[in-house]
Q: What sequence folds into this?
C-alpha cells in the first residue's frame, strides 16, 4: 500500500463507490480496483480515531504493552497461518507471486513477538489464557478474518484482504512505535516497537498497487469486495475495543512482572 500520511485528517468522499448502478457510463469508468485501494487507504484515517489510540497518552506505561502482548497473542500467531492460507488460494500466478512476497515480508514476526515477551519478562500465554473468556474478542476477530480468507472466491478479494490487514497494522504500529520509543524499554523490543513499524513501511508495494490500479472488476464484485473490507475492519475494531477494555480495567497499574497471563485473564 502507498504509505500516505494517515494522520493528516479528513476522509475522502466515498459515495462515488456506490453510485446508482443504472449509470452504465459510471460503471464502465469506475470498475477499476483502484477504487477499492482508495477506500482501504482512506479507511486508515478513521481507524486511527478508535478509543484505544485516543487513550494511549493516558495509559500507564507499565500496563499498555503487557496488555497488548497478552491480548494480541492469539492473533499474532494466527496471522502467520492467515498469510499462508490466503497465498495458497490465489489462482492467477502473477498475483500469487505478489501474495507470496507479502507473506515472506511478514514471516517471522511471531518470533519478534516472543522476543518481546522475554524482554518484558512476561511468560508466553498458555492455553488457559489463549482460550479464556476474557480474550474471546481477539479469537472471534481472528476467526472472522480467517473466515473471510477461506470463503474468498476470487484473487482480487484476496488482494483486498492483504491490503486491509496492512492498513490496520500500519496504524497500530505507528502508535505503538511512537509510544514505546519514548519509554525505557523501547530499544529492547522488536514487535511492539519502531523496528516493526519501519519494517512495515519498508515493504515494496509497487506490484500490489499496480494490481489494484490496472485491473477491473464488475460493479457487483467491487461492492462485494468492499463489503469484505468492511467486515475485516469491523473485526479489528472489535480487537481494539477489547484491548481498550483491558487497559481501562487496570485501575491500579502494577509492575511488568505482575502482568502475567493469570493477572490479565481476570481483567474483565
A:
Amino acid at each position: 500500500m502507498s504509505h500516505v500520511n494517515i494522520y493528516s485528517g479528513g476522509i475522502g468522499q466515498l459515495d462515488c463507490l456506490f453510485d446508482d448502478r443504472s449509470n452504465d457510463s459510471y460503471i464502465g469508468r469506475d470498475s477499476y480496483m483502484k477504487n477499492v485501494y482508495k477506500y482501504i487507504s482512506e479507511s486508515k484515517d478513521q481507524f486511527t480515531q478508535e478509543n484505544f489510540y485516543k487513550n494511549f497518552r493516558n495509559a500507564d506505561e507499565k500496563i499498555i504493552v503487557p496488555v497488548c502482548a497478552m491480548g494480541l497473542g492469539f492473533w499474532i500467531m494466527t496471522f502467520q497461518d492467515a498469510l499462508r492460507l490466503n497465498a495458497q488460494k490465489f489462482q492467477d500466478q502473477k498475483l500469487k507471486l505478489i501474495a507470496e512476497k507479502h507473506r515472506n515480508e511478514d514471516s517471522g514476526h511471531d518470533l519478534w513477538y516472543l522476543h518481546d515477551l522475554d524482554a518484558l519478562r512476561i511468560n508466553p500465554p498458555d492455553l488457559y489464557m489463549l482460550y479464556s473468556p476474557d480474550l474471546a474478542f481477539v479469537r472471534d476477530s481472528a476467526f472472522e478474518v480467517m473466515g473471510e480468507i477461506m470463503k474468498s472466491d476470487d484473487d482480487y478479494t484476496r488482494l483486498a484482504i492483504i491490503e486491509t490487514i496492512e492498513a490496520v497494522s500500519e496504524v497500530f504500529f505507528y502508535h505503538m512505535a511512537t509510544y514505546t520509543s519514548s519509554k525505557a524499554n523501547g530499544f529492547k523490543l522488536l514487535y511492539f516497537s519502531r523496528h516493526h513499524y519501519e519494517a512495515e513501511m519498508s515493504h515494496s508495494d509497487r506490484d500490489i498497487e499496480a494490481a489494484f490500479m490496472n485491473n477491473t472488476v464488475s460493479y457487483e464484485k467491487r461492492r462485494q469486495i468492499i463489503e469484505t473490507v468492511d467486515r475485516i475492519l469491523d473485526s479489528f475494531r472489535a480487537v481494539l475495543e477489547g484491548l481498550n477494555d483491558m487497559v481501562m480495567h487496570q485501575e491500579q497499574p502494577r509492575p511488568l512482572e505482575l502482568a502475567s497471563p493469570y493477572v490479565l485473564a481476570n481483567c474483565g
User: Anything to note?
Assistant: Confidence is low (pLDDT under 50) at residues 2-29, 251-268. The chain has 14 helices and no strands.
